[in-house]
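hey can u check if this looks right to u? its 555 residues, i copy pasted from the old doc so theres a chance i mangled smth
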Amino acid sequence: MASQRSGRSNGRRRSVPRNIRFNLAVYESKLREALDYTCSRVAGIPGSDPPDLSRGVKTAAVSYLFSEMLSKYDDQKQDSSRKENARKRFWEGEEMCFWTNLRFSQSHIWISENYPELEEARLRILGLLGPQPPLEEISRGFGFGPGSSTRLPKRKGDACYKYSAEAEVTPNTLSLAVAAISCNPIWKQMFAPGEEYNIPVVWGNRVTTVAKNYKTDRTIAVEPCMNMYVQKGIGSVFRRRLKRVGIDLDDQTPNQVAAKDLSNATIDFSMASDTVSQGIVGYLLPPGWVDLIDSARSEIGVLEDGSLHRYSKVSSMGNGFTFELETLIFWALALSCVPKDLHNRVRVYGDDVLVPRECAVHFLEVTSFCGFKPNEKKSFWEGPFRESCGKHFHSGHDITPFYVKSPVKKLTDLFLVHNQLWRWRRQVSELLSLHEHAAIDKILKSLRNLAPSKWRKPALPDGYGDDAFIGSFAECSPKTHAGGWEFFSCPTFSAIPESISDNLPPGGCWVKSDLNLRKRRWTTPVSFTTESSVEPTFSRRRRRTLLSVPWWAWG
């Protein structure tokens, strides 16, 4: 069906439509027909049918695709039941942490005698971190994430807002915040020489929910600026220490490659971030590190109704060291449950853990005592299927599905849906018949026809983003770059750098210019003062730009 074209705006005609006439039910029905698949779920309706993974690879790949494709769909409508489900999981996690804290409050001698693996894990963490935190190294890692804080919404999540005199902190982190400000010129310029550092103090972080899927929202905690600033420093040290022992938290590839091997078990944990209890951290980590973590975490959460809750957990999603801390704990526990000659097969990335299959049951017993709950739907150590870090394998074949996570309304949404199907077909191309290839080709062409005429032609090879339709070299037939024959010029519908306007919060700041809208990072340092201050703005504007692509990108 033809796409709608918008009228004039601000004296200029829009080059792309506001909305794309995409019908999810029609799209899924055509895809089912092309792959000769039937299931009980109504096409276009979010849900998940149990996949048939016991048969051949092709049957498993197709069945798994339709089982997962809409399992993470968010219709972007307000639904109180999803918030209620998120709240239930929040309190379930808190209850689990409460009982774990109680369990670890008993004699450590009894625990060591009955679970010697925990003593071994404790010694491993001591050897990796050392008895005392390296404060100088931690201070070099201080920084901010790109998200919101208790004071600022996400659209004002950049450093130029957070480096201001109004940064908030919790009472237990106040001394660390003052020390961080006093040794950092970026912060010190906010205060007059000799002026006392009066930092606003808040009760704790703010508990809220964000969209997850059609069933439930996800509970997160929004941290005060200065808490996050210090937490990122602690997390950076954990990250560097783990890299020394082969755990690279900047690369998921080792987990994904190891998941192909059916002799490994792939284990995922449910609510892992929300079940890292104070008890397990106090037992496994050296006392100096425990004190530092207690000084940087938010002890209290401000719930949506304004009431206060003292956490049983150490931290949650939104904290600057949660991911690194849970990786450290699972790494130590996994090695303590695996024979020394098999340590090279252990892989950990957050709560995604791979251990030898014969060690899986023992590992789950130990982690259960530590208060962690395995996700039975995503943990595998028997049968032909494995899953880790976003990759899914059946008998060693990659059958990773794609997900339609939100309504397809914009041109960029259409690009993504098309490109996901294109990549999936290439991934399982050896399993599909010529008839199925041709049927998927028709679907891809029908998706391209929904776009404005100037954007219907594939323009990019795979691996260069989703700002245009991807395709083969013959489909794209790119134009040679004016600067030389090694590159081609490919048109993309890309985000443009944002404009700068005069309206910064009180106080000067040190930020970086040349905003990259996608990651909201800056590249060139610029010092802004109160007399001449600027701020970035974050409208989601896009325009046609030419991307230089090397000839070898099409393989």
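Residues 1-11, 500-539 have pLDDT under 50 and may be disordered.
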